[in-house]
Amino acid sequence: MDNRLNELRRKIRTLRREMLGLEATTRDQIRQDQDCTASASQTMAMRKELAGLVRQWGILGGGDRLPTITERLRENYRPVVRPKAVPEKMQKRRLVARGC
């Protein structure tokens, strides 16, 4: 059972990667004012296949909650930037310059 879940996860991950590439191709075709019917149709077929895989994954006990698109876009992957410590000499100069 667990092996089947891992296989489904792998298929879903691979299919998502392929879909991203195909969607990029579609966007390029649109930018260049070319016919994108074939790539768009293929993307829709891949989405249908993905929905079926996710359904199977859920039936087999895949309990992970899948985030929505909005939630994924809101995630912050930027590293935390901490302000640099100012040496004491610089702090004193700033205070003197301000007249404090």
Q: Which runs of at least 5 residues are low in confidence (pLDDT < 50)?
A: none
The 3D shape can be described as: elongated
Percentage of helical residues?
Answer: over 70%
Distance between the termini: 71 Å
- Strand coverage percent: under 5%
**Number of extended strands:** 0
Largest sheet: none
Strand-pairing-aware structural class: mainly alpha
Question: Please, what is the average pLDDT?
Answer: 82
SSE succession: HHHH
What is the CA-based Rg, rounded? 25 Å
Number of DSSP helical runs = 4
Structural description of this entry:
With 100 residues, the protein is an all-alpha fold. It has a domain at 1-65. The chain contains four helices and no strands. The chain has helices spanning 2-31, 37-59, 69-74, 88-98. The mean pLDDT is 82.
Features of the shown structure:
100 residues; elongated; mainly alpha
Quick overview:
With 100 residues, the chain is mainly alpha-helical.
Write the layout of secondary structure elements.
Blueprint: H1 2-31, H2 37-59, H3 69-74, H4 88-98
